[in-house]
Design goal:
Elements: E1 2-9, H1 13-20, H2 23-29, E2 33-40, E3 43-52, E4 55-69, E5 73-82, E6 85-97, E7 103-114, H3 122-144, H4 163-182
Antiparallel strand pairs: 1-7, 2-3, 3-4, 4-5, 5-6, 6-7
């Protein structure tokens, strides 16, 4: 499955980059995120809870950052597994300064899905993924504009926590298929 899109973030590219690399912002913005922790240089472990009614699950995985070009682009890869299947993604994020101090965020993703999830079809998967990606970026934007608070957490001992951006996008894209297919928890 391939996905691409753009969204406008209401902050300059350096602030968007900083938000996408801040573990507190990511934990507050990733739908269903229960755990996000360093596992090595520019790599992180995650746990996402998803489900409604009788179908519920916890999905775990790892995500890694490569090709960082602060504050304009990076590539991330992620792999998550849970009861209904496995999702592996490769995602390129591009940040482009835009008018009035905003940033255009573009992404191109390719996901490989196996297990029961694969049987649901690309149209269903793509629709669920797009909805959750939009939720993730809207939540990050609300934090950037001060409309949504973030509880402060101590930064991990890595230099710039570049992998956070990776986690934000990869976990959202990888988890979106899983979470969107089995439903969303009511808030």
């Amino acid at each position: 499955m391939k996905l691409s899109g753009t969204t406008t973030m209401h902050a300059p590219a350096d602030r968007v980059w900083a938000a996408l690399t801040d573990p507190a912002v990511l934990a507050a913005s990733i739908p269903g995120c229960e755990r996000l922790e360093p596992s090595g240089p520019d790599s992180y472990r995650f746990t996402i809870a998803a489900g409604v009614a009788p179908i519920q699950g916890s999905y775990t995985g790892e995500v890694a950052l490569s090709q960082p070009r602060e504050p304009t682009s990076f590539v991330l890869t992620a792999r998550g597994t849970g009861g209904p299947g496995t999702v592996a993604t490769s995602i390129r994020i591009i940040l482009t300064p835009a008018a009035a101090g905003t940033t255009e965020l573009g992404y191109e993703a390719e996901a490989t899905i196996s297990g029961l999830l694969a049987g649901l079809g690309p149209r269903v998967l793509a629709s669920a993924a797009r909805r959750l990606i939009d939720e993730f970026f809207a939540s990050v934007d609300q934090i950037l504009t001060g409309r949504k608070p973030v509880a402060a957490r101590p930064a991990p001992p890595t230099a710039a926590f570049l992998g956070g951006a990776l986690v934000g996008a990869a976990v959202t894209l990888a988890g979106a298929a899983v979470r969107g297919l089995i439903g969303r928890r009511s808030r």
